[in-house]
Specification:
By secondary structure, the protein is of the alpha+beta class. It has one domain. The N and C termini lie far apart (38 Å). It has five helices and nine strands; from the N terminus they run αββαββαββββαβα. The longest helix has 22 residues. 28% of the residues are buried. The protein is globular and about 50 Å long.
Amino acid sequence: MTPSTMRFLVAALLLGAAAMFLAGEPHSEVFPSRLLLKSFPLQIGTTWKGNDVAISKGVLETLGPGDFLLRVYDSGDQRQPSIDLFIAYFPSQRTGDTIHSPQNCLPGAGWTPIYADRTMLAVIGHRPFPTNRYVIAKGDSRQFVLYWYWAHDRGVASEYAAKFYLVADSIRMHRSDGALVRITTALLPGESASAAEQRILPFVESVVQLLNRYIPS
């Protein structure tokens, strides 16, 4: 059995366990109140102003039932690349509509990962948590991607850790909601992944501090 097959089976078992537990519980699944993602601030800090980008019908059908935000934030400084913010929130993952990993969708959009690692994100007022850090390429274009899974005031980088917590939270809290947060920016000429991370870090920190209003803890 290949490692990828083993990972798929583990993920399927975790999702199946969560679905079976929720289906067999006498109590209905809990759906906490939250703000819709369309109300996420158009201005981040004093610098970044956002414009919404329409998500195609085909992408929405692939994502399934949920609340989604795709927005481009500009600083007004032409020397600084814009920052794309994508948030996908799933109120329930009990029926198989689960969070899709960017590792699966990026190649389908023509982007090739050329560098990948993980980094700890430390935000004021929140314990540090791991995130995925990617550099992707399409032709001559290079982009830096930072993404993580967020649920119940907890950030994780691993898709399988997210599914483990999905089962645990289904049992403990009667909730299966969760989200993917992805932040992307074009790389400047000669810019490293670490330098790009530091450049957008104030924006990232501001986003994290807002998340629990839209993805309930």
